């Protein structure tokens, strides 16, 4: 099982090289990530955006553009649509957001003619390498679905399982995170957690173990779980943390990002091809890890 991003990068290098289409590519951290991904043999790229600006940034960061195809498009909305079209037509395997606001980027992703719709729910998956854990943690959904109902959580789990399996976690352990580890009819998240667990028991959600509700300590710490008498296949060994809503997910995501010495990557799944959707504040290293994750997920989707 892959336990860190060094192994994620190696797995991405070992597979057939994937190609990423970058929407509005004239962004320094994005181009630094693309440069590094190319140099490490993780992914090739098609850069869609204003060519003169791309060339200026490339010169600044020592990036050899002769290795890349550039599609010159000054209009950011048209550039995003073109990048999406490259993916939906099969000329690229995955999509990456550049210097464009998220709303216009997602409009292109959802475009009825060239977009990446599948009819499934889209969701965001963050992947974290933390010093205190012997495994990667998958966090969902911290950025896209605000207040998911039970049916939404089923799809969110399935999307996260796809990412975890792509990384090499054959049967990930999913913890529906709640404030408590018992079912309380007044707390909808605990009710949803118990139903998800039963659906998993009956084979309605495959490819993973789901057990909950679990409070965060009982999901991550075997010692805490044992102290509280919480048992099961997930207790203290969770791979995927299913957060109850966007507030909890976003707070958790940013707490890990800003208070720990973590490494992370993130992407949007539930689309016909993975979408690298990182924050403007993310480092080029985080963006490169996200490209590597997307390359693995692109391979995983072709197996389905």
Task: Describe the structure in your own words.
With 304 residues, the protein is α/β, with parallel strands linked by helices. It is built from eleven helices and twelve strands. It has helices at residues 5-14, 28-39, 51-61, 76-88, 102-109, 150-167, 188-201, 216-220, 222-227, 246-259, 284-303; strands at 18-23, 43-49, 69-72, 94-97, 123-129, 137-140, 173-178, 209-210, 214-215, 240-242, 263-269, 275-276. The strands form two sheets. Strands 5, 6, 7, 8, 9, 10 and 11 form a seven-stranded mixed sheet that branches. The chain has a five-stranded parallel sheet with strand order 3-2-1-4-12, with helices on both faces. α2 (28-39) crosses α11 (284-303) and α6 (150-167) packs across α11 (284-303). The longest helix is centred in the C-terminal third of the chain and has 20 residues, at 284-303. 52% of the residues are buried.
Total helix count? 11
The overall average pLDDT, rounded, is 95
Straight-line distance between termini:
20 Å
- Unreliable stretches (pLDDT < 50, length at least 5) are none
- Count the E strands: 12
Class computed from helices, strands and strand pairing: alpha/beta
Task: Tell me, briefly, the overall form.
Answer: elongated
| Percent of residues in helices | 40-55%
Q: Using only CA atoms, what is the Rg?
A: 19 Å
The helix/strand order is HEHEHEHEHEEHEHEEHHEHEEH
Report the β-strand fraction as a percent range: 15-25%
Q: How is the biggest beta sheet arranged?
A: 7 strands, mixed
